[in-house]
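Researcher: Good morning. I'm working through a list of sequences from a screen, and I'd like to move beyond sequence-only analysis. For each chain I'm collecting a predicted structure so we can compare shapes side by side. This is the next one on the list. No need for commentary yet; just the structure.
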Amino acid sequence: MTKILFLVWMIFLVSQKVFSQTGQSIDTWVSMANATPTGNGAGACIVYAEKDGNPKIYNIRGGTTGFGIYDINTNVWVSTTALPYAASSGAAMTWDGGNFIYILLGGTTFYQFDISAASFGRLADPPGSVTSGGAIVYVSTQIGLNWCYAYKGGSTAFWRYDINTNTWANMSVAPASEAAGSALVWTNNEFIYGIIGGTAQMRRYNINTNSWSTLASQTAGNWGAGGSLAYPVGTNFIYVFRGGSVTFLKYTISPESWVFVSSVAAALGTNSGNKLAIKDDYAYGRRGVTDDSFWRYRWRDVDPPGKITSFVAETGTNGGEINLSWVCPGNDNYIGNLPAGSTFYIQYASWTGVNFSTTTQPPAGGYDLYLPTGPVVQGSTVYYTIGGLQENDTYYFRIWAKDNAGNWSEISNGATAWAMYTTDTIPPDAISDLVSLPITQDNRIDLKWTSPGDDWDSGSLTGAYIVQYASETMIGTVVWQYSNAQVIISTTNITPGTTQHFSLTLSGGTTYYFRMWARDEAFNYSNI
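Model: Good morning. Structure tokens for this chain:
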């Protein structure tokens, strides 16, 4: 058989960024507006379609002629033109990437819905009566062939509808009888993937060779009513509702594997055809049964948090501390709370020439700090105290937010502050053993004493020894205080208890009297 080249629906990727900023965290389900028309009968199903940049999801209620449209931009459902006939078991829809949705209504009726005109046109009847397990998928080629492939349901029959000629043909039969929970999806190449209700395998149909392959089984259980497939264009995987349960799975095409993704809020149930649709970063699902619940799942997050523009640094309370604060951005720019698994990332340095950037961690000549966080309410103020800094030095800071999908915000505004220095109110001990050594040289006096500590008798002393002296002629009027001292001996890191010496040159033939104080770096003075 001649190999056929296939067209890829690029419309999904072109409009990717327009509708994605919702603030919803990745890998989560949220409830959306309940589906319209309300209620679910046999043949209930949904499909995504877009026309003129307006993304919609179309909904068949099932068991009636009810037909509804969901506007993704506004989260609003409306009823539209009624179906020509009531949908029944096996009803299914597929979109051609343009203006038409093709609809099996169950039984022997097949229709085309014109999106622009909001009208139905009946097409050639399928070769047999579609029933529970029916499914349909659109395929296009680069040579102008446009087809719909379909499960009949309740059998192994597999058909192809030629849109150009409005004719049906029987194709190679499916690997198993198509029970409730069967579904089809095209991956924009020569393959159609399918699940068949009552089994647990993934199936693959080769359009070029008209042949089926049975692929890996998932272990959550057989496909049931509501079993559904959705393919995010350009990826290597397919999302799957197992049906009849809360199980939501991801099938990786190559290398082949199954992964349990999450649970939906409630089990999909009976009277459910395909209940899953993909648009950009989101999968949409309808529950079915008698419940009109409609959900949205975020499978991809390409939107970064907003830039932090309110970053503030202030001198802290304790030595070596600076207090930081900022207003939390949103998960998507400034929308939505920052989810669990997010991070605030801070870089800082004590000089202005550092190059702040997430590509170099930490920055050359600087430091960095990761603060795992979340959930954090968008717009709330976050506080953090950074310690261990060089006291009294000025520091320069930048901050980024990173969401749980790994998207980085832009670099913040700059914040600057100096680190608090320790408040020291404890003076050194008084020097109690100051002595003048025997004179060995004219006009020189040698002093000796034992050094106190920085705080009383503890800690190395950095500061000064303060010496005041008076001659015998002044002794009767002298006022002993360190502000009157004549000599200041600077000192650094002197161990308490060590012997110190100092020599003074004074006029000979006179008796001198000395007093001494110790002073630490905080200008606390010992007693005399």
